[in-house]
Here is the input.
Amino acid sequence: MSAMSLLLKRALEAVLLLAVATPALAQSAGNFPSRPIKILVGFPAAGSTDSVVRLMAQAASKSLGQPVVIENRPGAGGAISIVQMKNSPPDGYTLALLTLAVFRSPVVEDAGYDPIDDITYVIRLTNVQFGVAVLADAPWRNWQDFVAYAKTHPEKISYGVPAGLGNSAHLLMEEIAGHERSKWTAIPYKGSADLAQAFIGRHIAVSVDGSGGFGRLVDSGRARLLAMASEERSPRWKDVPTLKELGYNVAVDSPWGLGGPKGMDPRAVQVVHDAFKRSLEDAAVQNIITQFGQGIRYMGPAEYARYAVEAYKAERALLTKYGFAKKR
Here is the structure.
């Protein structure tokens, strides 16, 4: 059996497991939720994804009839929060925010969980668009200026990335630097808030982050976007070219959603799914999604589980290419 077939088999087994949840879990799901639900977020507070999921949680709580509490557990690229979620009872009261990092951490290190076997995929919600920004008074007026300087002075180019090395922003710049046959210094930060502080403090020359990290700085005139890493131009910054337009065959679509421990009762999964799907229709949620330059990337539980298999395979291939994959 091929590796891909094995992953698909495991994903289907995980979905089937939901259909045969234990009687105790089934009984407890009958009046679910009867107390607050906790969502573990593996990044510091005040980042773009954290801000959006908090507003979604408020909207979802109206449908659930119970508070939805956000608990930040930053560290290890988000793996700490996933392990805590994995080790919680599969009763639907402890969930975790899932980003692409959930598929990357087990490739890079012994993260303490398996992204296929240990997670119930509940709902995929939205995505983060990435861009490359410099301070407003930087000498580079556009992407071409930046690349010309960076190729001749690589030792002077340091760029900040959120959530550690081996994540979207870092791999994006590795692809570009490789294309330009150059080498630039990546500086990892815990999250967008820490990265923004370092950027404003001039500890790094470039910020490579999700739109929530640089958006306010760009809109206030304190920073300037050189390029977006999305497939198409951002509706918020329409005059900024994409990296594909600039000649690079790279784009980053970093979707995120919610998951729970293996073996969640399907009725609890459906209740959470329905509440958060409705939250996407909330005007305040739609406004903050637009404000942070994100887009809706909805998937239901079964589709999200299938996507997880594909994403895990793709991230393993990418991380192996750049030498980040652990030796088996």
Q: What stands out?
A: The first strand starts at residue 37 and ends at 41. Residues 18-27 have pLDDT under 50 and may be disordered. DSSP finds twelve helices and eleven strands in the chain. Residues 31 and 87 are 23 Å apart (CA to CA).
